[in-house]
Amino acid sequence: MGSMDGVALAKAVRKAGGTMQIVFVTGYSDYIAEGYDVEALNYLMKPVDAAKLFDVLDKAVARMRRDSRCLDLQCAEGLMRIPLADIRYLDVRRNYVTVHADRDYTVKRPLGEFEAELGDGFCQVGRAMIVNLRRIRCVGRSSVQLTDGTTPPLPRRAYEPLNRTIIDQTRLRMAGSRPAGCRKAVPGWTGQNAKEGHDVVPWARQGRQGHRGISARAGRHALPRGREHVPSDAHVAA
């Protein structure tokens, strides 16, 4: 790897896309936070317990099988199979749905038909968009920033329910559970975020206890006090 360390390599791998599972094995705990930026499956400290290692590998295989699922679209050029992990979001205009993945695919189908095919990991936001939760970097009041830098607009009143969905999904993953089907960000949920006026919840950093300084310097806010605490094994992604 030359002068490149493991964190830099992981970022390069994740930037290239794909469904590769990343597990850090190290004797240092200084870079655990960086694992959130690359969606690492786990962060194992040396010496590594064999039972723990095999458990993580089993989870990696299960996630790879899940991420290998595809969305089948009947387009003008024929049947297209799009890996779910490559899909960033879907939006609808009039009677046409555009699937934004490695490129854009537009088909004439109701947005609701995609819910069962996409399953967990996706969330319908309002009536006109479904977003891949794993592709969200941060949520703003009027738009959501994805990991590739695109910023699709958020429907009115979708900010709070989308935040709640992301938090709930993270807790379910940590507990080893999986939500059934495509999630829905339903307008009307209000919580401490609204009361304290926070503008953005960094998706990649929301599980870190007490993480306020970095987010503040970057012009973003961490979760309000009372929602930032997670179990001590928060770096383990189920």
TrEMBL record:
Residues 1-61 form the Response regulatory domain. PROSITE patterns: HTH_LYTTR, RESPONSE_REGULATORY. Residues 207-238 are annotated as: Disordered. Residues 71-168 form the HTH LytTR-type domain. Coiled coil: none annotated. This is Two-component response regulator. PANTHER family: STAGE 0 SPORULATION PROTEIN A HOMOLOG (PTHR37299:SF1), TRANSCRIPTIONAL REGULATOR-RELATED (PTHR37299).
